[in-house]
């Protein structure tokens, strides 16, 4: 399977006073606001780190669902928060915080499968430059 997805960013003005928008091919994001405040303070809009967190949490969670299904388990609920750390101009770490309800799975099988999903999810592979950690809780 091969496909390409697109997104577009537009910026006008300086880095500090300027502003921009981000749009995705699916239009889920359609001219979402982007500015200094949305990235480095609490402005309304989005930012690259938040978008990376969204992409990583979504990819990891879907990958985990596929792996659990291959093992014969049907997850009732998989909830992943991706925490992207930005320090001194660099994304230094991503922590995936998973809470899951998977009937019938042992703690060891759950931990092993979650770790495998973290390693093989396409976004994890792309982001190998950053430290990616995982804490998984079976509830």
From TrEMBL:
Residues 1-22 are annotated as: Disordered. GO terms for biological process: response to oxidative stress. Residues 1-11 have a biased composition (Polar residues). One of its GO terms (molecular function) is peroxidase activity. This is OsmC family protein. It comes from the Bacteria.
